[in-house]
Design goal:
There is one protein chain. This protein is an alpha+beta fold. It is about 55% helix and about 10% strand. The chain has 19 helices and 13 strands. Strands 3, 4, 5, 6 and 8 form a 5-stranded antiparallel beta sheet that branches. A 4-stranded mixed beta sheet has the order 7-12-11-9, with helices on one face. Strands 1-2 form a two-stranded antiparallel sheet. Strand 1 and strand 2 (about 115-120) form a beta hairpin. The longest helix has about 55 residues, at about 440-495. It is globular, with a radius of gyration of 28 Å. The chain starts with a helix and ends with a helix.
Length: about 500
């Protein structure tokens, strides 16, 4: 309780320092659609308030940084000025000395026991020193964030990257999560969410995301899974994870040599455009074919290597279930084919709403405008327009859709920096063709028929039970009626 009280005091001081209690409610709760190109005084003031929120979150540390990053994915929840500012959240902090980081290697012993006694395992961090387990280990970190630090090392002659979680981090995060749960009623009022937004579900999703990011074993599995999906794609590189050396707070993976896309200079435009096409098409494959995608694909997490690109940092990934993936593909197809009615219908399905729940006439008009702009408008990022449309019509999109849209927005931004004429619609034709081919392939059809047949067979098996229940009910009803009539007859006879 003492630690919680201290943390409450720290959070309150930071909120007061940036005047958030008064500014947030007045600002975010306003009903307006902002434009980042706008230079009017009102919008500049609102943008200034968004900067204060970002600075406060950065000062409060990892939990609030992650909360801000999660909120930045919800264009259907916050005005664009706040979304754009929270996207800038910096997660770079002063590195800790390696002797302090050593505490993270105090893991459970994995050495076995034999008849002869203790058997030492070469991959046990508990029994062996970290500097002895690797062929070579540079104790100076190459990257430092609020959750962990990354080091260069050599393992069995191969260069690897070793990510280590900061010690005692989980205690601070659990404390912050408890405080955020306590503050939920205040946060709901401060943010001013629409009536269709489920704030409890949002917080649950946020806690789950943090749980996964704090366990590096999930990231290792994500890497393995993504690598499997791209095993036949020559232009895309996914690093491998060394599972024997991975723990909850330690991740060992391939070190990817190359240049981060954000630092790519000195190459001709043709090469840049080629990189843009590889990045765009590979990302659409992740989303619409695999249903498993990198959820934070900013330019620092994509590396140019020779004529290929590599994705790194798989702590944040997204998955899309079958039904949502079908609806999203149909929505993407409708936008590509300029089918306004179909796009509107799919958009409502994604939001789990019907035409009766919205002003359908205005929604279709806005959808028509957005599709026209997607195809004929000036170049620039456009993927966030649909979340703004949801915000305008109070359509609460599923967290998966919002996370994905933010990721696609990042990809679009990366590609546009490489090629000003890049359009994600140019990648649509081959992607849609491949997706439809997979959906209606003979194998999928047979699989679908078999599934339907199994369901039908189960129904048939249960029919006798159902009929028997119905017959028993009818029989009981008839007996009850007959008994009633008998009683009436008896009464008449007695009379």
């Amino acid at each position: 309780m003492l630690e919680k009280a201290k943390r409450y005091l720290t959070i309150t001081k930071v909120f007061l320092k940036y005047n958030l209690f008064s500014l947030l409610y007045k600002d975010i709760h306003r009903d307006y659609i902002s434009n980042k190109e706008c230079t009017c005084s009102v919008d500049l003031k609102n943008r200034s308030n968004a900067v204060k929120l970002r600075l406060a979150f950065e000062e409060l540390g990892p939990t609030f940084i992650k909360l801000g990053q999660t909120l930045s994915k919800r264009s259907d929840l916050l005005p664009p000025t706040y979304v754009q500012e929270l996207e800038k959240l910096q997660d770079r902090v002063k590195p800790l000395d390696f002797n302090i980081m050593r505490k993270s290697f105090e893991t459970e012993c994995i050495c076995g026991m034999s008849e002869g006694g203790h058997v030492h395992s070469p991959v046990c961090y508990h029994c062996g020193d970290i500097l002895d387990i690797f062929d070579d280990f540079d104790t100076k970190p190459i990257a430092s964030a609020s959750i962990g630090q990354v080091y260069e090392a050599f393992l069995k002659g191969k260069k690897v990257a070793v990510k280590i979680e900061r010690p005692n981090l989980i205690d601070t995060i659990n404390l912050d999560l408890a405080i955020i749960e306590d503050m939920k009623p205040i946060l709901v009022k401060i943010i001013g969410t629409g009536k269709n937004f489920n704030f409890d579900a949002f917080l649950y999703e946020f806690r789950e995301m943090l749980h996964r990011e704090l366990d590096y074993r999930f990231e290792a599995i994500n890497m393995k899974r993504m690598k499997e999906n791209f095993k036949d794609v020559r232009d895309v590189i996914i690093p491998d994870a060394y599972m024997d050396y991975c723990r909850e707070n330690i991740l060992v993976m391939d070190y990817i040599e190359g240049i981060q896309i954000k630092d790519l200079t000195g190459v001709d435009q043709e090469t840049k455009s080629r990189y843009a096409r590889i990045i765009g098409s590979s990302y659409l494959k992740q989303v619409y074919l695999d249903g498993f995608y990198h959820a934070d694909p900013h330019s620092g997490n994509i590396i140019a290597r020779n004529s290929s690109v590599a994705f790194i940092d798989f702590g944040a990934v997204g998955t899309i279930d079958g039904e949502l993936k079908r609806n999203m593909l149909d929505f993407f197809y409708a936008v590509y084919k300029k089918k306004v009615d179909m796009a509107t219908d799919m958009f409502l399905r994604i939001g789990n709403l019907t035409e009766e729940d919205v002003d359908i006439r205005n929604l279709k008009r806005d959808m028509d405008d957005l599709i026209a702009d997607q195809h004929y408008g000036a170049q620039g990022r456009k993927s966030d327009r649909y979340a703004i449309l949801a915000l305008k019509h109070d359509i609460s999109l599923p967290a998966e859709f919002s996370t994905l849209e933010r990721a696609v927005l990042l990809i679009e931004g990366v590609c546009l920096k490489l090629d000003l004429n890049y359009s994600i619609m140019n990648e649509a034709k081959s992607l849609i063709s491949e997706a439809m081919k997979e959906r209606y392939s003979p194998g999928k059809i047979v699989e679908g028929i078999q599934f339907e047949a199994d369901e039908y067979l189960n129904t048939l098996k249960n029919i006798p039970i159902g009929i028997d229940d119905v017959i028993k009910t009818i029989r009981g009803y008839r007996i009850e009626k007959l008994q009633g009539k008998g009683d009436v007859i008896k009464k008449i006879s007695l009379a």
